[in-house]
Structure formats: structure tokens, C-alpha cells
Design a protein that fits this description.
Layout lengths: L2 H24 L1 H56 L5 H82 L4 H14 L4 E5 L2 E2 L8 H9 L3 E3 L6 E3 L2 H4 L1
Parallel strand pairs: 1-4
Antiparallel strand pairs: 1-2, 3-4
The structure holds zinc ion (ZN).
Amino acid sequence: MRETDALVRVQEIDLALMRYKRTLDDMPQTKKLLAIRAARKKVASQLSKIVGQRKDVQMDLDENERAHTRLEELVGETQQKFESGEVGYRELANLESQLTVLAKKLEKREFQRKELLARLEKVQQAENNARAMDARLAEEAEAQKGSYKEQTAGIERDVRMLVREREQVVASISEDVIKRYNAATKRFGGLAVETLTGNKPSVCRVSIPPSSFGDIRRGPDITECPYCHRLLVCDHMFSS
Ligand SMILES: [Zn+2]
């Protein structure tokens, strides 16, 4: 393949690929998938907060249980002393008041435990809801992916063919021209190569005056348009 033909073809392929990409990006499934991804991210951050809360409540419950056990042990020991019959009257009264204090502390711990259990239930419910929401979103994403795949199978096939063809075509173009083409593609948003019809470049369509036109005809096959600075393929004036 001649380099000039290859360059023109590469541009055709790239423009087609850009059109396909736009079509794919504009598919309603693509937008829905983006929305689902954002929603899942939100749910994930909520979930990590909820899990943190749940772990805190569980730790508080463990702590409550340890304190409760310790208090029960103290009650047992105090009760034993109280009933041993080995302590005097004054000590007995002291132990009795200690038992009252311990009973109040136990009551307080039990009340706290009930509160913590209620909070745990609430947090667990929130966690279940978040997980269920994430599962629903994941399912919806799969459905959207399936429908996208079904509707874009033809495009994907064409894209694969074009990408393969591009690899072959690019092999006929020198590294220097490819570099210039890549730079021009970036600069002009894709439309980087012009051909000539008579003395008119195909994109900017500014007629080249005879004086410059002679220079261009005598110059290299691939040059630069003096007006818009796109790559100008010149030998096409003989074939087109
Ligand atoms: Zn031009």
C-alpha cells in the first residue's frame, strides 16, 4: 500500500472509530451504567460507615457484658461474706449498703445493654438494607450490560475489524508521518488529513494560488496545507 493511500485510510478508520465510540458512549445503557456505578459507590461508603457503627456497638456490648460479669462476681463475693456469719454488726451494715450499690450498678448495666441491643438491631437493619440495595444495583448493572452487549454486537464486530485493518495500514506509513498525523489529530480533533481536488484542499477548501501550487506539486507527497496546517496528501490530485 502506498503511504499516501495508507494515511488517507488511517484517517477514515480513525474517524469511523470515533463515530462508533460516540455511538457507544451515547447508548442509554452506558449512561445508566455510569449512574449505577455512582450509586454503588455511595452505597459502599454508607455501608462502610454502618459497618463501623455496628462494630462500635458490638464492642460496647462486649464491654457491657464484661462489666456485668464482674459486677455479678462482686455481688456473689459480698453476698458470701454477708451470709458467712463471721462479720460483726458494723461490717454487716457496710456489706448491705455495698450490695445495694452493686444492685443499682447491675440495673444500670442491664438498662444500657437493652439500649445497645436496640441500637445493634437498628444498625444491623440499616446494614441489611444497604447490602440489599447494592445487590439490586449489581443485578441492574448486569441487566444493562447484557442489553448493551446485545445491542452493540454489530458495532463491536466492526470496531474489531477496523482496529485489525488499522494495524496493517499503519505498517505502510513512516514513523515520522505517523508522528505528524498523531499530533495533527490531537490538534484538529480527528480531521487531520486533507486531499486535493484540483487546487482545493478537501477540508479547509481554500484554493491554493498557482505560485504555491507549483511548489506543492513538486514537493513531497505528504506536506502541510499552507492555510490550515493539516497534513496535505498531494499525489491524490492525479488519482482523483
Ligand atoms: Zn487546509
